Amino acid sequence: MDSTGTVFDPAAFQAYTELRRIASEYHLEDELEVPQLVVVGETSAGKSMLVQNFLRFPCSFTAHDIATRCPVSYRLVHNSTLAGGEKRVTKPPGVTHPEKLVDHLKIEMERIAKDVASGFSSHCFEIEIESAEYTDFEIVDVPGLVTGNPQADVRAAVEGIVENYVRNPRFSIVLLKEAGQLLQNATGALRIRELCTAPQGFATTLPPRPDYLNHMITVQTKFDSYLSMKNGTDANQKIENLRRELGETYFVNMIFDGYSMADHSFEQNVEYIAKLPELERTQVDHWIEELDKAAGSPPQGFQKFNSTEYRPLIGIDVVRRQIQQLWLRVSTGNIKCECLSFTTNRHPQIHP
């Protein structure tokens, strides 16, 4: 949470407030589609961890080593009547506090694993959370791709679920892959491309989405694998290769020093998430300082780290801002379209 008390970046939150004012002026609050984002990637790429770092509280059942077995929708609802810092869970029934979500999700995932033949369900498990600090937004965490699973029915079940979201133009896409993984080995990233662009979907009737890259960012997780690198030449080259292969891409770690949320209380994990941006910033900056100290010395003559181009791509706060920008682009587009429709169809004399 930033100094303004909002979960979102202050500039994004201010823009959101203005968009709501415009929607209210044209009486379009109920007609606007809530911006939606789907988080995809291979199993253990860090999807659920990214979601809870974005929401700023631990909500991931992966603390119990339970895989995501169905799409999990986190619907954020702006409620200006709630006190600062207060978050109220309104779905699922019977859960009122974010702390209770982990156990509730764990039970549901275990049920699906036991009762469904493939171990996966396409039925979306819906969570709705209200806060004065939220904007209206929906994040969907889908099961991780299991491209190497020898069971064809399991692969088909998971890919069918993912395809239903990534081919849907209403959803912006956040693709997660491990930073140390080159594109030719990133079977999850390659499979997402196929699911989006195949002329015919194998599990849905949705048309191909050839422009999906315009609505997607890639997040490279487990960036700590780079922090063991000792020279700026190699670090620069690896980051540049990934940028060239994947386009708009960012880097994040999310967990440092072997911290396990399963071993700590809800309050301790909230505190860890709050401190993570500064911890990450400190460790990455120290790594860059060491690379720069080693630069220029013979016989290798290593480069300095390219801080101008690459440092702005690293960090959980960077990733949050980019997710917010995806949201903001969709929100702006929705309101412009609705306002244009309103002024054209209902008040022809008004020109937008």
Automatic annotation (TrEMBL):
Domain Dynamin N-terminal: 37-186
Domain of life: Eukaryota
One Pfam family cited in the UniProt record for this chain: Dynamin_N
Gene3D superfamilies found in the cross-reference section: P-loop containing nucleotide triphosphate hydrolases
Alphabetized GO MF terms: GTPase activity; microtubule binding
Gene Ontology, cellular component aspect: cytoplasm; membrane; microtubule
Protein name: Dynamin N-terminal domain-containing protein
Protein's organism: Rotaria socialis
Taxonomic path: Eukaryota, Metazoa, Spiralia, Gnathifera, Rotifera
